[in-house]
Amino acid sequence: MAEDDISQSPSKKAAKIATYISQVPDSYRKQEEQTIGTLQLDKVINEVTAFGFNLKEELEARTGPFIEIAGPTPEGFEFVDYDKLDRKVFISNIGNGLPLQDDEKGEIIGHWGKVDFQADSQKMPLRQQSVGALFASKMDIDVVIDTIKEANRILEPGGIFILQGVTKKDIIDLVKELGFEVKREVTKENRDGLKIRDLILQNPIKK
């Protein structure tokens, strides 16, 4: 549903959706405060970059398309600016956009942003080793494992996976078991002691 359609509708529900849309990404920042904490409250406790790794060069060397899964991400990505990439990033989501949730009722009342195609991040309609780079942010912990496995399938050799806002404790062991190389890892800790990781992963050149 387009923003114009929502704002012109007299219904109470449409008015509420319009309010949510006007607050994005502000509403997501408030949600973040309740879950993993704001960036101002996070402290970096670990930051490691693989020697000689240059993200810009690695992305430019990829031949396949760039895709954001479960997007769009209102706050963008810490490691990369889409506007500075050498190609378009196609946005995908299982729905029509980023879900807008009514916290009081616990139900989805609309979507924000636009997607280029709809797809389940755990079962993408893409050929094996056909994607140059993937981007994902703050994925639910119950889907992140299968999403990483799917990323391993569809990324070309040398393909890049930028995954930010991960709270799963054993994420590093998991990605290494799947064959990914961890090229950069930034670990933050919020006020509640929850560790949040931003990762740059790369499929080996030889698979």
Structure description:
The longest helix is centred in the C-terminal third of the chain and has 14 residues. The N terminus is likely disordered. This protein has one domain: Rossmann fold. By secondary structure, it is of the alpha/beta class. Helix content is 27%, strand content 31%. The N and C termini lie far apart (42 Å).
Mind sketching the topology for me?
Layout: H1 3-8, H2 12-23, H3 26-35, E1 43-49, H4 55-60, E2 66-68, E3 89-93, E4 98-102, E5 107-112, E6 117-118, E7 131-137, H5 141-154, E8 155-166, H6 171-177, E9 181-189, E10 195-202
Parallel strand pairs: 2-3, 2-7, 3-6, 7-8
Antiparallel strand pairs: 1-9, 4-5, 8-10, 9-10
Please state the overall shape, judged from the principal axes of the Cα atoms.
globular
The share of residues in extended strands comes to 25-35%
- Following the backbone from N to C, one meets helices and strands in this order, namely HHHEHEEEEEEHEHEE
The CATH architecture term is 3-Layer(aba) Sandwich
CATH superfamily: Vaccinia Virus protein VP39
The residue fraction in helices comes out at 25-40%
Structure, briefly:
27% of the residues lie in helices and 31% in strands. With 207 residues, it is of the alpha/beta class.
Name some characteristics of this structure.
207 residues; alpha/beta; Rossmann fold; two-stranded antiparallel ribbon
